[in-house]
Automatic annotation (TrEMBL):
It holds the Pfam family Lipase_3. Residues 86-223 form the Fungal lipase-type domain. One of its GO terms (biological process) is lipid metabolic process. The lineage of its organism: Eukaryota, Viridiplantae, Streptophyta, Embryophyta, Tracheophyta. InterPro entries: AB_hydrolase_fold, Fungal_lipase-type, Sec_MonoDiacylglyc_Lipase. This is Fungal lipase-type domain-containing protein.
Length: 339
């Protein structure tokens, strides 16, 4: 059975800025969201991994961050073809994604987002970005990239929980670090805050696209209760929903641009979110770890020389993309990395 991708945009009424969905950009960024799952850090750091080819070929990685303590991973670099800094966050590395999905059913809004009255988020998603070694590493790399390449745009991406972290990162860059040109595109992202938070996010980071796929279960989580709109989790816009239409022996994938509510009932909410397999493949690209070992990583011991390690075993690898060889970084504690 053949599958074809076609672009179908449905016009809706809207107010204010409307992010433009770009199919080609989506097929590029999904490869970055896939590459960050790689467990062979030597290949990932040198951008020679099996997922580091294709439409991301030539990417110049600046920093690879691994928070071993919390099982998190991200990289930052420059894509010359996009003329942008790309930041990618890894999704959940749980040995059983089913356990993680079940846990999402019970997540509660339990943290007030700083400086945003009535905005609430889940502390787990918030802390994964804000209170680990990920944030200082990202901010340092973005600063370094701008020193090397000027004030170019920033594209932030991630899949699953990585999408949640990408969203908090983009908001942080815009609100706390005055980055003006920040673009977000996530894949299979869960809800992360309430309607008040979604409203703030939409206004502050308007150039945001959330891609959802068929019956992917994760965008349906944590649950949305329309009768309690201020107290329940609520997606921010704009969603693009991928779904298949059968025409005889052919299957066409339609890309539907949804309305500006964040909770368009004619998009992924129109179907039951009951598929983990739909969560793991977007645009034909696998979005999962290449090993079943929980938080398993593989790395040539010599590569460690190009990074910094803290007392808890978390580390970051640095590279100067303008140099012919890797630049040795002699820092030994993340506390010395600017926040």
């Amino acid at each position: 059975m053949s599958i074809f991708f076609i672009i179908t945009e449905l016009k809706v009424k809207h107010e204010g800025h409307v992010p433009v969905y770009n199919h080609t950009l989506a097929t590029i960024l999904v490869e970055y969201a896939s590459a960050v799952y790689m467990s062979d850090l030597t290949e990932l750091f040198s951008w020679t991994c099996s997922r580091c080819n294709g439409m991301t070929k030539g990417f110049e990685i600046i920093e690879l961050i691994v928070d071993v303590q919390h099982c998190l991973q991200a990289f930052i670099g420059v894509a010359r073809d996009l003329n942008a800094i790309v930041i990618a966050f890894r999704g959940t590395q749980e040995h059983s994604i089913q356990n993680w999905v079940e846990d999402l059913f019970w997540k509660q809004l339990d943290l007030n987002y700083p400086g945003m009255p009535d905005a609430m988020v889940h502390h787990g998603f918030y802390n994964a970005y804000h209170n680990t070694t990920i944030r200082p590493g990202v901010l340092y790399a973005v600063k370094r990239a701008k020193e090397l390449y000027g004030d170019i745009g920033i594209m932030v991406t991630g899949h699953s929980m990585g999408g949640a972290m990408a969203s908090f990162c983009a908001l942080d860059l815009k609100v706390n670090h005055e980055s003006q040109n920040v673009q977000v595109m996530t894949f299979g992202q869960p809800r992360i805050g309430n309607a008040a938070f979604a409203s703030y996010f939409s206004r502050l980071v308007p150039n945001t696209i959330r891609i959802t796929n068929e019956h992917d279960i994760v965008p349906h989580l944590p649950p949305y209760y329309p009768y309690f709109s201020q107290k329940t989790y609520h997606h921010f816009p704009r969603e693009v929903w991928l779904y298949n239409v059968e025409l005889g022996s052919l299957v066409y994938t339609v890309e539907k641009v949804c309305d500006s509510s964040g909770e368009d009932s004619s998009c992924c909410r129109s179907v039951t979110g009951n598929s983990i397999s739909d969560h793991l493949v977007y645009y034909g690209i696998e979005l999962e770890a290449d090993t079943w070992s929980k938080c398993g990583i593989v790395m040539d011991p010599r590569v460690v020389e190009y990074g910094a390690t803290d007392l808890k075993g978390n580390f970051a690898l640095y590279k100067d993309p303008t140099a012919l060889t890797l630049k040795l970084n002699t820092q030994t504690d993340f506390g010395s990395i600017p926040a």
